Amino acid sequence: MNSATTRNPSVLQWLWLSLAIVVLDLGSKTLASSMLSYNLPVSVLPIFDLRLLHNTGAAFSFLASEEGWQRWLFVTIAVVVSGLIVHWLRQTEPQQKIQALGYAAILGGALGNLFDRIVHGYVVDFLSFHYAGWYFPAFNIADMGITLGAIALIVDALFLSKDRSK
After folding, report:
1. Which of 24, 27, 106, 119 is a plausible cystine mate for 149, CB 3.0–4.6 Å?
2. Does the residue 94 lie in any domain?
Protein backbone atom coordinates (compact mmCIF):
# COMPACT_ATOMS: atom_id res chain seq x y z
CA MET A 1 0.00 0.00 0.00
CA ASN A 2 1.32 3.45 -0.93
CA SER A 3 2.16 5.34 2.27
CA ALA A 4 1.23 8.66 0.66
CA THR A 5 -2.37 7.55 0.33
CA THR A 6 -2.77 5.95 3.75
CA ARG A 7 -4.43 7.87 6.52
CA ASN A 8 -2.12 9.20 9.19
CA PRO A 9 -3.06 7.60 12.53
CA SER A 10 -1.37 10.44 14.43
CA VAL A 11 -3.62 13.09 12.90
CA LEU A 12 -5.76 13.22 16.05
CA GLN A 13 -2.87 14.49 18.16
CA TRP A 14 -2.51 17.39 15.77
CA LEU A 15 -6.23 18.13 15.81
CA TRP A 16 -5.90 18.53 19.58
CA LEU A 17 -3.44 21.35 18.89
CA SER A 18 -5.96 22.94 16.51
CA LEU A 19 -8.65 22.66 19.17
CA ALA A 20 -6.36 24.21 21.80
CA ILE A 21 -5.70 27.19 19.52
CA VAL A 22 -9.44 27.64 18.91
CA VAL A 23 -10.20 27.50 22.65
CA LEU A 24 -7.41 29.95 23.54
CA ASP A 25 -8.43 32.25 20.71
CA LEU A 26 -12.14 32.33 21.48
CA GLY A 27 -11.52 32.58 25.23
CA SER A 28 -9.12 35.51 24.81
CA LYS A 29 -11.51 37.26 22.41
CA THR A 30 -14.36 36.83 24.90
CA LEU A 31 -12.23 38.33 27.67
CA ALA A 32 -11.07 41.19 25.45
CA SER A 33 -14.63 41.94 24.34
CA SER A 34 -15.94 41.97 27.91
CA MET A 35 -13.06 43.88 29.52
CA LEU A 36 -11.94 46.40 26.90
CA SER A 37 -13.74 49.41 25.46
CA TYR A 38 -13.80 49.55 21.68
CA ASN A 39 -10.70 51.26 20.21
CA LEU A 40 -9.56 52.52 23.63
CA PRO A 41 -5.97 51.36 24.17
CA VAL A 42 -4.83 49.87 27.46
CA SER A 43 -1.06 50.25 27.64
CA VAL A 44 0.78 47.11 28.73
CA LEU A 45 4.30 48.00 27.56
CA PRO A 46 5.69 51.09 25.81
CA ILE A 47 5.33 49.24 22.48
CA PHE A 48 2.26 47.07 23.24
CA ASP A 49 -1.39 47.86 23.94
CA LEU A 50 -4.56 45.87 24.34
CA ARG A 51 -7.00 47.54 21.94
CA LEU A 52 -10.36 46.01 21.03
CA LEU A 53 -11.05 46.29 17.30
CA HIS A 54 -13.46 44.60 14.90
CA ASN A 55 -12.06 43.65 11.51
CA THR A 56 -14.62 42.98 8.77
CA GLY A 57 -11.82 42.43 6.28
CA ALA A 58 -9.01 39.92 6.00
CA ALA A 59 -5.33 40.32 6.87
CA PHE A 60 -4.35 43.96 7.33
CA SER A 61 -8.05 44.90 6.96
CA PHE A 62 -8.09 43.89 3.28
CA LEU A 63 -11.61 44.62 1.91
CA ALA A 64 -12.77 45.93 5.32
CA SER A 65 -14.39 48.99 3.74
CA GLU A 66 -16.70 46.92 1.52
CA GLU A 67 -20.42 46.68 2.19
CA GLY A 68 -20.57 43.21 3.77
CA TRP A 69 -20.30 40.76 0.89
CA GLN A 70 -16.69 40.06 1.90
CA ARG A 71 -17.89 38.34 5.09
CA TRP A 72 -19.28 35.40 3.11
CA LEU A 73 -16.31 35.36 0.74
CA PHE A 74 -13.96 34.98 3.72
CA VAL A 75 -16.25 32.38 5.33
CA THR A 76 -16.21 30.35 2.11
CA ILE A 77 -12.43 30.63 1.77
CA ALA A 78 -11.94 29.57 5.42
CA VAL A 79 -14.20 26.54 5.03
CA VAL A 80 -12.52 25.40 1.81
CA VAL A 81 -8.99 25.97 3.15
CA SER A 82 -9.85 24.20 6.42
CA GLY A 83 -11.07 21.18 4.46
CA LEU A 84 -7.89 21.16 2.39
CA ILE A 85 -5.73 21.44 5.50
CA VAL A 86 -7.47 18.47 7.14
CA HIS A 87 -6.90 16.49 3.93
CA TRP A 88 -3.21 17.47 3.80
CA LEU A 89 -2.81 16.76 7.50
CA ARG A 90 -4.17 13.25 6.96
CA GLN A 91 -1.60 12.75 4.18
CA THR A 92 1.42 13.73 6.27
CA GLU A 93 3.69 10.96 7.42
CA PRO A 94 4.09 10.54 11.20
CA GLN A 95 7.73 11.72 11.00
CA GLN A 96 6.69 14.99 9.33
CA LYS A 97 6.09 16.69 12.67
CA ILE A 98 6.91 20.27 11.65
CA GLN A 99 4.65 20.05 8.62
CA ALA A 100 1.81 18.58 10.71
CA LEU A 101 2.35 21.25 13.38
CA GLY A 102 2.09 23.93 10.69
CA TYR A 103 -1.14 22.53 9.28
CA ALA A 104 -2.67 22.14 12.75
CA ALA A 105 -1.76 25.68 13.80
CA ILE A 106 -3.17 27.18 10.59
CA LEU A 107 -6.33 25.10 10.97
CA GLY A 108 -6.85 26.25 14.57
CA GLY A 109 -6.37 29.88 13.59
CA ALA A 110 -8.64 29.61 10.57
CA LEU A 111 -11.41 28.03 12.65
CA GLY A 112 -11.09 30.65 15.40
CA ASN A 113 -11.49 33.50 12.93
CA LEU A 114 -14.18 31.59 11.02
CA PHE A 115 -16.27 31.39 14.19
CA ASP A 116 -16.04 35.18 14.59
CA ARG A 117 -17.03 35.84 10.99
CA ILE A 118 -20.06 33.57 11.16
CA VAL A 119 -21.27 34.67 14.62
CA HIS A 120 -20.30 38.37 14.68
CA GLY A 121 -19.71 39.33 11.05
CA TYR A 122 -16.20 40.50 11.96
CA VAL A 123 -13.02 39.18 13.58
CA VAL A 124 -12.18 40.40 17.08
CA ASP A 125 -8.63 41.76 17.27
CA PHE A 126 -7.04 43.09 20.44
CA LEU A 127 -3.23 42.76 20.36
CA SER A 128 -1.62 45.99 19.17
CA PHE A 129 2.10 46.66 18.74
CA HIS A 130 3.43 50.12 17.92
CA TYR A 131 6.60 52.15 17.83
CA ALA A 132 7.25 55.85 17.28
CA GLY A 133 3.75 56.49 15.94
CA TRP A 134 3.76 53.42 13.65
CA TYR A 135 1.12 50.79 14.43
CA PHE A 136 1.28 47.20 13.27
CA PRO A 137 -2.27 46.01 12.42
CA ALA A 138 -4.02 44.60 15.49
CA PHE A 139 -4.32 40.83 15.64
CA ASN A 140 -5.42 37.92 17.85
CA ILE A 141 -4.41 34.41 18.93
CA ALA A 142 -5.91 32.87 15.76
CA ASP A 143 -3.74 35.14 13.63
CA MET A 144 -0.69 34.04 15.65
CA GLY A 145 -1.60 30.40 14.96
CA ILE A 146 -1.90 31.07 11.24
CA THR A 147 1.38 32.98 11.14
CA LEU A 148 3.36 30.45 13.19
CA GLY A 149 1.84 27.61 11.17
CA ALA A 150 2.89 29.27 7.92
CA ILE A 151 6.42 29.75 9.29
CA ALA A 152 6.54 26.06 10.23
CA LEU A 153 5.47 25.05 6.70
CA ILE A 154 8.09 27.35 5.16
CA VAL A 155 10.82 25.94 7.42
CA ASP A 156 9.69 22.42 6.55
CA ALA A 157 9.67 23.15 2.81
CA LEU A 158 13.02 24.92 2.78
CA PHE A 159 15.04 22.81 5.18
CA LEU A 160 13.36 19.54 6.12
CA SER A 161 11.65 18.21 3.00
CA LYS A 162 15.06 17.91 1.28
CA ASP A 163 16.21 15.55 4.04
CA ARG A 164 13.13 13.36 3.58
CA SER A 165 13.54 13.14 -0.19
CA LYS A 166 17.04 11.62 0.12
Report:
1. 106
2. yes
Total domain count, the chain: 1
Q: What is the spatial distance between Cα 96 and Cα 160, in angstroms, rounded to a whole number? A: 9
pLDDT of res. 4: 43
Task: State the catalytic residue, choosing from 25, 49, 125, 156.
Answer: 125
Q: Which of 25, 116, 143, 156 is catalytic?
A: 143
Residue 157: is its pLDDT beyond 70? yes
Distance CA 88, CA 123 (A): 26
**DSSP β-bridge partners for residue 129:** 48
- Answer yes or no: is 145 within a domain: yes
Confidence at residue 126, expressed as pLDDT on a 0 to 100 scale = 98
Beta-carbon-side half-sphere exposure of residue 152 (alpha carbons within 13 Å): 18
pLDDT tens, 68-88?
Answer: 667 788 889 899 999 999 999
Position 61: which residue type?
S
In-domain check, residue 41: no
Helix (H) or strand (E) holding 63, with range, is: none
Q: Which residue range is the domain that position 131 belongs to? A: 48-161
Active site residue 25: no
